[in-house]
Amino acid sequence: MESLKKCPFCGGEAENDFGFTHDNKTYFYVNCLQCGTETNHFETKAKASTAWETRADDWDELIEQRDELLKACKKAVENMEQDAVQANGEWQTGMFCGLEDRNITDRYDACMYGYNNALKKVQEWVIGAIEEGISEQS
C-alpha cells in the first residue's frame, strides 16, 4: 500500500483502497480512516492519490494550531468549572445581583437578566482562558 499524507482535518491515516462501480465504470477515492474525509471520485487510483496529495503546504502548521486551540479550550472549560465552584458570599445568596437597582420584579425578566449576565461571564472566562493558554504555548 502506498504512503499517503495524513488527513488535513484530523491527522488520521488515509487509504487508497476504496473503489466502487457505477454504470460499468470503476471509480476510486482516497479516504481518511479516522474521520471519513474523502477525495472526489476518479477513474484511477493514481488520480485519486494525486488529488489527496495535492494541497496547501501549510496544513501541518494549521493542524498544530488547531491542536493548540483545542488544548486552550479544554483549559478554559476546566477554569470555568473551578471558578463556578469558588462562588461564595454574596454570590451564593444572590445579594447584590442588581435586580432591585434595575427595578426588575418579573420572574421572567429576572431569569433573562441572569441568563444574559451568565453568558457574558462565561464568554469572559472562555476568552480569558484561551488567550492565557495560547500565550503559555507561545
Description of the molecule:
This protein has 138 residues and is of the alpha+beta class. It has 2 domains: 14-53, no CATH class; 59-137, no CATH class. Helices cover 51% and strands 12% of the residues. The protein is built from 4 helices and 2 strands; from the N terminus they run ββαααα. The chain has helices at 45-53, 59-85, 90-93, 107-137; strands at residues 14-22, 25-32. The protein has a two-stranded antiparallel ribbon. α2 packs across α4 (107-137). The protein is elongated.
Q: Overall pLDDT, averaged?
A: 78
User: From N to C, what is the helix and strand string?
Assistant: EEHHHH
Give the overall form: elongated
Gyration radius, to the nearest Å?
25 Å
How much strand? 5-15%
Low-confidence stretches: none
How many helix segments? Answer: 4
Query: What is the terminal-to-terminal distance?
Result: 38 Å
Major pleated sheet? 2 strands, antiparallel
Strand order of the largest sheet: 1-2
Summed up, the domain count is: 2
Strand segment tally: 2
Secondary structural class: alpha+beta
Helix share bin: 40-55%
